Amino acid sequence: PTITLSDDSTVVLEAVADAGYVEAAVPQTTDAAAGTVDVVFTTNVEPALSNVGSFWSKWTATDAAGNSRSVSRTITVRDTTPPVITVHQSTIAVALNPSSS
Fold it and tell me: Cβ contacts of residue 7 below 8 Å, gap of 6+?
C-alpha cells in the first residue's frame, strides 16, 4: 500500500497546560489490489502538551496481503512563554530607628 501524510511531517507546538495533542488528519492510503487497508496509529506524545520535548507519531498501513508501509511525524513541544510575576499591593513598615528596651 501507499500512505501519505495529509499535512507536514514536522509539527512545532507551544507548551500549554491542560491541553492535549490531537493528530490533524488521518493519512491517505491506496493499494494496487482490491481489499481493505488497515491503518494503525502509534505515538510517544505525552497526553498533555505541558511536557516539553521531541516526540513522534507513526501511521502504518497494511493491506490484505500483509504488505505494510509507514509514515511518521516529529512533534516538538517547546515553551517560549516567559513566566508571569504578579505582585499584590501591600504595605511594609520599616522601622528606621528601632528602639530597644
Answer: 24, 25
47-85 pLDDT, tens digit per residue, is: 778 888 999 999 999 999 999 999 999 999 999 988 888
**Is 74:11 a contact under the CB 8 Å cutoff?**
yes
Owner of C-alpha cell 494503525: 40
| pTM score, whole prediction | 0.70
Instruction: Kindly report the three-state secondary structure assignment for every residue of the chain.
Output: CEEECCCCCEEEEECCCCCECCCCCCCEEECCCCCCCEEEEEECCCCECCCCEEEEEEEEEECCCCCEEEEEEEEEEECCCCCCCCCCCCCCCCCCCCCCC
| 53 in Cβ contact with 62 (< 8 Å) | no
Query: Taking a C-beta distance cutoff of 8 angstroms, is the pair 75, 13 a contact?
Result: yes
The three cell numbers of residue 84 are: 508571569
